[in-house]
Amino acid sequence: MKIAIFGPHRRVGVIVENKVVDANAAYAKYLAETSEEARPQARADAEVPAELGAFITEGNRALEGAQSAVDYLWSKAADDRGRDGEPLFFDLEETNLHAPVAQGSRIYCALANFFDHMEAASKNSAGNDTAEVLDRLVQGGPKYFLKDHRAVGADGEPVRYPARTRRLDYEAEVAVIVGKQGRDIGRGDALPYIWGYTLHNDWSIRDNVSFGPDFMHSKNFDTSATIGPWIVVNEGLDPQDIPLECRVNGEIRQNGNTKSMVHDFSTFIQHLSADTTLYPGDLISSGTPKGTAVDSSRQQTDGSHPDALFVKPGDVVEVSSTLIGAIRNEVISPSA
Q: Polar residues composition bias: which ranges (predicted)?
């Protein structure tokens, strides 16, 4: 099942045959027409909420209800209208999809988490201590940083080129969505906490960035994360065997798989939940494989990298996975 956020009211939708089905309204119709429920809308609001965070929190009940509604709408319903005559599904190409991020959710991003990415960065480094720094990042357990959920953009939305950079980079990543609340989760108990999967382009400023106090500044700016296009749920995916690719203006730059993560998602869930509660809707992003502009460019003696491979206004970047979908964005001038 593909769960999306659509329309001006940011409602939960189910993607079916190039359509977006309003899950909550479709379930209310299903209840009204197949049961003796006296208050079908109230029950639908409780069991198949229209808001993503509440929908995720409901767990299997919401997913099963949404699936029942879709099955009924496609095979048995007399029409495709809701209880008040409103449309229940919309053409995907004509519908605005938002980033599938629940309000207030935290976005945890793995750092230095693909061996090939770190190896390529080390080989292209001019610094004498770079290999040592990168080794420290890989050793000693997972490392991460946080993205601001208010800086997230969606598939198809323009990415604003930050005025403070000459070297804007892309990072193709897979993100898992936490499905239930938990703290101090053991690694062996972690997989049931994964609710679904989406794609993430972790846009990054690379101008003389160090792994120090200013690192978060290079990772957080308006449109600094593209997430979407939807969340893949209950399709039997192996979190450690998801392919991903990145193209810039049609040219393949990254081609990797989550099987190459240094620390897998279970390890990250264990690490992040130590003394800290994870909540439904929180995202954990994988880190990125080799092929970014920064790990493909030879570092200069002043610490900078040639800007030929970095994206510029007018470039189009696509992150995709054959198991999830694709997110595509054009980079625009900060003055646009």
A: 287-303
